[in-house]
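Loading example: each entry is read as two labelled lines plus one structure line.
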Amino acid sequence: MTGPFKILLALHTPVVLQAVPPRLDGLLHEACCRLHGDWACNHDLPLDRDPVLAGYRASQITFVSTPEYPLAASDFALVAQPEALDRHLVTEPPKKIKENGGPYSGRLSRYEGLICPYLAFYGDGDGEACADLLELLDGVGRLHMMGGGSFTVVGVEPDDSAGWRLRSWPKKWACDAPAKANIPAIESLTVGGEDEPIVRPRRIMREVMR
Amino acid sequence: MTVTMSAYRRFHTATQRIRDENTWPSTVEVSRSSVCSCCTRPFDAVEDPGEAVMYRYSAGQARMSLCTTCFTPKHGSYLALGVERRAGTSDKTVAGKLGMLPACGAVITTDNQLHLSMPAGFVSKFKDGSFARDGLISESKPDPLFWDLYRTGGLDDIDQGIVVIAPLGRKSLNLMANLRLTSSLAECWINSDQGVRVSDRESICAIADWATKHDRIAEVCSPRFWSPIRAAAQGQHDQNRLAAWGEHTPDPADLISRLPDDPHDRLALHLALKSYFGR
């Protein structure tokens, strides 16, 4: 099946976003690197290229909530350096650790997470192949190797709303970008590309699934 | 390649008076491919290329090579700020530095002016410095300073990039390592000595307009008004509670459309609106 598609992912643990929101082509690139065991080259992704973007037709992350479960803030703290813990904290761990103050608060790194039932990515290309590649990944966002943003692929469906356009666009072609893409920034348009002035939608895009 | 405005360039220009003083330490020439220990930018990309200030916290600590921008908050200045405190029993004094200003905020506008907000104690200490003489110090908190500048049109060209710092704090290297530019009110990067966070201030303006129009200014500054929204932002969604809230709120659909997307912003709405209205 080729053409515009939407991939739905079920989200299990909170996503911690960084400055630049995750994009489908970035995730697929990492999946391809794992598949081929080669992080040095630019792999070909099963997505169509767009001439204006000089990059792939792949959208930013969208947080999908349901009427019962809205997008929620889910903050957590992790031990910053497990190897620096005192021995007794490992052999006889305390049942509860006060995070706001006390002796351990300085050893904790705090993260602001977002949790909702589903995530969605839009694209234009071979949706089934993209979904298969995404299954190789463990998570999205920060701490993805430590359980952050873990997801499972739910399904792929055709999309007639050109949702792949919800991503960064070169500033000089801002007239081609959708109206929602109105945040100026300096980021790269392709994976591993040079930073340049772009416009993009807000970091947190929301959708409701009935 | 055009030189894009960066947060570091703004900070550097806004604090030039601190580096112009004759107390500024001598810099060493370093290889342009080596990087600043704080911001990790290569020395050919910093504002004073190839110049580094050698710094270490104390005798037992490692030496760091800092670019002039990252070292600026560590340099005490009697002329720009003033005397921060006396040290020891003799006449020795310590000069105020931008990197030791807890509870103080800063906004660097597009004309590279460093506007500072300080509590009363600091304002009286630094009243004879050049920042105070140029009218750049106001006795307020960091967020009200931002909103005052916004209301007087000082942030109209925000798309050219401003730097928001709240608070300046005590850990200047943490502050300078992660300095980020803000180019849109909808995505305001608030730098601090504890890291950077992002906030949607455009939605605060929209909600403030709604509150002014419907005469609910005092209510929106209280967390009780927002309780079903806050509960939903924490994952406890109650449709009945939300419907009841909609009953006694004028034009609830309009208000909900003005809410920020980030649930973290929704949890702090009452505080942001309090700063906006100066309460």
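The first helix of chain A runs from residue 24 to 36.
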